[in-house]
Amino acid sequence: MSLLITGGTVIGPTGAIAADVLVDGETIAAIFAPGQGPGVETLDATGKYVIPGGIDAHTHMELPFGGTSASDTFDTGTRAAAYGGTTTIIDFAVQRTGEVVQDGLAAWHAKADGNCHIDYAFHMILGGVDDDSLKAMDQLVADEGVTSFKLFMAYPGVFYSDDGQILRAMQKARDNGSMIMMHAENGIAIDVLVQQALARGETDPIYHGITRPEALEAEATHRAIALAEVARDCPLYIVHLSASRALEHVAAARDAGRNVFAETCPQYLYLTLEDQLGAPGFEGAKWVCSTPLRSKHESHQRDLWRGLRSNDLAIVSTDHCPFCFKDQKERGVGDFSKIPNGIGGVEHRVDLVYQGVVDGKLSVERWVETISTTPARMFGLYPKKGVIAPGSDADIVLYDPNGRTRISVETHHMNMDHSAYEGYEIAGRVDTVLSRGEVIVSDGTYHGAKGRGRYLRRGLSSYLV
Ligand SMILES: [Zn+2]
Hints:
This protein is α/β, with parallel strands linked by helices. The chain has one domain: Alpha-Beta Barrel (TIM Barrel). The protein has helices spanning 74-83, 101-112, 131-144, 163-176, 187-199, 206-210, 214-230, 244-255, 266-270, 273-277, 300-310, 349-358, 364-378; strands at residues 2-12, 15-24, 27-32, 41-44, 49-52, 54-59, 64-65, 68-69, 86-95, 119-126, 148-152, 179-183, 236-238, 260-264, 315-316, 396-400, 405-406, 425-426, 429-435, 438-442, 445-446. The strands form 4 sheets. Strands 1, 2, 3, 4, 5, 16, 19, 20 and 21 form a 9-stranded mixed β-sheet that branches. It has an 8-stranded parallel β-sheet with strand order 6-9-10-11-12-13-14-15. Strand 9 (86-95), helix 2 (101-112) and strand 10 form a beta-alpha-beta unit. Helix 3 (131-144) packs parallel to helix 4 and helix 4 packs across helix 7 (214-230). The chain binds zinc ion. Residues 58, 60, 319, 321 line the site of zinc ion. Its cofactor is Zn(2+). Keywords: Hydrolase, Metal-binding. InterPro entries: Amidohydro-rel (IPR006680), Hydantoinase/dihydroPyrase (IPR011778), Metal-dep_hydrolase_composite (IPR011059), Metal_Hydrolase (IPR032466), Metallo-dep_Hydrolases_sf (IPR050378).
């Protein structure tokens, strides 16, 4: 079946153009000058941006953490993503320490298979680097379409890798063409600060942020960059970068021509240590995430927006890892270190970054790059995803710059009993969402279905030299 999207402004790598987009079945068949397309069924996009569907390269559906699990399943989380204009997620399969890597991947396939509303792919978290997991990296790249591996410099005893393990994984990635993703915080030092704070009776949520100072993110970021250099410039992607000094290290590496990339997340662009994490009583637990929200008295948010403009920050992902306040976040009453780490935002990323366009911080083209095109290229999904071009999947969002979105727990679709962005007003709105040619959201109504999302085997990153 054919569908012609007419009258819109198509945003792509070459700029914004008035064009009509012909969808045939699951893919984009052709792009026409306005009014020049064939006489088939039409979808009116007059006054709207026509953009490739959002790609959220960092989600944690159903992630077990701190004795509980992230509250969105692949069903609820991907449906919420679709509402917000995201048509692909890349979630993190987990190898727990001592577990066979392939078993961890199989467990994530079992959670996702038959439950996703949109297409999905996996990165692999390595909870232990040894001879077996290094061998498994080759197998995942060659056979499973998993071409990026996440390591942790934080969470000793849980996910932590020491520098020797990190170096070995980086050397392997350099050899097989895959990407190392890094949670860059010095977890050994952080754990000392956490114990000292608790011993002083500092138990409120804000101490989660105070015990994870910027210096320990900057130090770990710098160390990861140095280790990647030793591993013959292994491609390195810093996840959830939150702070100015970490960004300076990334920028310096990039200026030197290194294969170093980074993402930030909406929470670091909008929320702060004082206003959210420091909310009265236990309220701040809603915003406990790692890396933590940073101080509003410093220049982090200004610097992060600037980094997005300059491409020192390549991507905005959500690190979607929702926990309900009741019973989940509440596990940490009286001890901030027991609060499950994570913020839910998979539904709001496209809107929250678009607000940066409205506020004059990003161009409309840069908005599309950071939420869709670059994630596709970075993680081996381009040009199937991330672009409106003939042959690409017809994952398309009609975005209304004259619409408005008010974010609230009352109206969101994530399985959370609160919103991290309660009351935020966005001067734009997701109007229509197509996933592989099928209209799954129109005018706030959902038409998709659980199980229609497909697993995507990824290729290697387009960014590698
Ligand atoms: Zn994460």
